[in-house]
Amino acid sequence: MNLIIDIGNTLTKVSVVNGQQVLFFSRYERLQPSDVENVVAQFKPQKAIYSAVGAIPTEAIGMMKQLIPYTLELTHNTPIPLINCYESKVTLGLDRLAVAVGASWLYPNTNLLVIDSGTAITYELVTSKGEYLGGAISPGINMRFAALNHFTQRLPKVSVTSTFPLVGTNTQSCIQSGVLNGIVNEVIGYILESERKFPNLETVLTGGDANFFETKLKNNIFVIPNLLTLGLNRILEFNAKENLA
């Protein structure tokens, strides 16, 4: 039983994981020590890991370290069960690395393309030999809508919709057509190009907009909503095996 804390720019996500099963998941605007105490009291996790791209809630993390002696912070120096071939390792987003680890754990010995569709869309490539190669970063759906509104005088802010035309007949539907058709074709194109380069490639989709893409992609894909959590858990277990043996 492990406690997993993912500290983002706006929300902190807390999970309790047992193997591949997520037993608890919750989001917090500001994680408090009492929140950690409550989760630990209920599930009694033996190990913990935290990863931060936002400001670390020091009191809450301090409480976690006090209650769970084996607490691991994911950094760029943390050993991982992949060969990291990325050139600038210190600039690599830890969330990108974690989803790559999670996918490789679920689908071992397989060429993988991992697509995380959130604020940004990230593409991660992992070879069947367990090599993390890198990938690509692209603006997410809402970022594209916001950019059109922000950088023009008259274009309105438009929201995502599950159905949209190829040919828009008013300003709103034209924006939806351009952004949504464009982003779907980008993802399809990246999958197809990756499949040409890496034989027997499997595609794994995760992130907040995964449901939008799931119904739009003709390619065979695996949708894993909690892939980041599972990746962090895998990194925790990998390090615990070495350090607690």
What are the secondary-structure elements, in order, as H or E?
A: EEEHEHEEHEEEHHEHEH
**What's the helix count?**
7
What's the CATH C level of the largest domain? Alpha Beta
- Write down the CATH topology of the largest domain: Nucleotidyltransferase, domain 5
Whole-number tally of structural domains: 2
Number of E-type strands: 11
Contiguous uncertain segments of 5+ residues: none
Query: How far apart lie the N and C ends?
Result: 17 Å
Can you give a write-up of this model?
With 245 residues, this protein is an alpha/beta fold. It has 2 domains: 1-73, ATPase, nucleotide binding domain (Nucleotidyltransferase, domain 5, 2-Layer Sandwich), CATH 3.30.420.40; 77-245, 2-Layer Sandwich (Nucleotidyltransferase, domain 5), CATH 3.30.420.40. The protein contains 7 helices and 11 strands. The strands form 2 sheets. It has a 6-stranded mixed sheet, sandwiched between helices.
Q: Would you summarize the structure shown here?
A:
This protein has 245 residues and is α/β, with parallel strands linked by helices.
SSE layout:
Blueprint: E1 2-7, E2 12-18, E3 21-28, H1 33-43, E4 47-52, H2 58-67, E5 70-73, E6 83-84, H3 94-106, E7 112-117, E8 120-126, E9 131-139, H4 141-150, H5 171-197, E10 202-206, H6 210-214, E11 221-223, H7 227-243
Parallel strand pairs: 1-4, 4-5, 6-9, 7-10, 10-11
Antiparallel strand pairs: 1-2, 2-3, 7-8, 8-9
Helix pairs in contact: 1-2, 3-7, 4-5
